[in-house]
Amino acid sequence: MYSKKEEIIMKKPLFLFTAAILAMFIFSGAVQSATVYNLKMNVIYPPPTTEWEAKYLTTHVFAKRVAEATNGQVNIQFFFNSQLSPVAQGLAALEKGVTDLWNGSSTWGGTIPESDVIWLPYAFRGAEHAMHVMRETEVGKLFDEAYRKRGSRVLMYWPSGGMIFIGKKPIRALEDVRGMKLRSSYALWKGWYQRMGVSPINLAVAEQYQALMRGTVDATIYPEYTLDTYKFSEVCKYITVPAVVDPGMCYVLVSLNKWNSIPADLQKTIEKVALEVEKETIQATARLSSEALQKAAGKGVEMTRLSQMEFEKFKESAMPAWDEFTAKSPECAKMVKLIKEDIQQWEKMRPESKQWYDKWISK
Prior knowledge:
By secondary structure, this protein is α/β, with parallel strands linked by helices.
């Protein structure tokens, strides 16, 4: 028989051992629940020049908010200027895990035909309309499904600004572009260029400034903000609106392999943050474009607003691009049908449409 004191002494090691085992289980569970997911984002563009533009929001702000919302369980590191992979190899980089996120715009029309929908000339009537098409119609679903077949999915969209004519000569009518040397932007536009009677010139993005300065090309079709950030206002004194593509749509893709490795609750949190940032990019890009146009005007850049009649002529001239896109796949044909129907409804029912026409079409 043991005294009470001896029993207590004998039970103490057992208690400590049990407590230690219990602590190990608790600690193990805590460690398991706090698994950290590190994601690498390849950004095809140079770093942002402001702390409020869309490019900054979809990189710095997005990463910060995701880390905060997930209590540090999801960390995103971004790399500008395609540091992780060349633009042409972006899809392969996502598939192979070289990068987990890709931030840029469509460059794979030959591989994913449906991705070229964002480059259809005169398909959108501003950022609100473009977001509506990609988020609220089946066009966006078809777009995302096309990427899913190649191992990624769309996480968010963001507008980069209207793709306008920026040149050394005024363009006030469709006839004015005939004979011009125009930078060749996208393969989808080849037939359109031929119909307009322009000479397409192949130039890398970084070569545009020198080519415009030297007269190698007469004009380029590029976002409004580049009048400021690319200093095009120094060598070009004429711009023409409405934009050919308004806006140029960018987006963030995520590798499905990486995405499927992340727990569902964290996925929902990331999606929630992405949609919040996506909405904020609309006003951010509007501000960036507006400030660039104001600065350009201060440097003597003349803006031409097309008349309704000339706008209709430009739209008609672009039909070869629409026809070429339609022929690429049944899904592309469906997208075109949906967009044409949606434009009619948008222009008939939405006040944003009237605001767009009032802003960009001359009276």
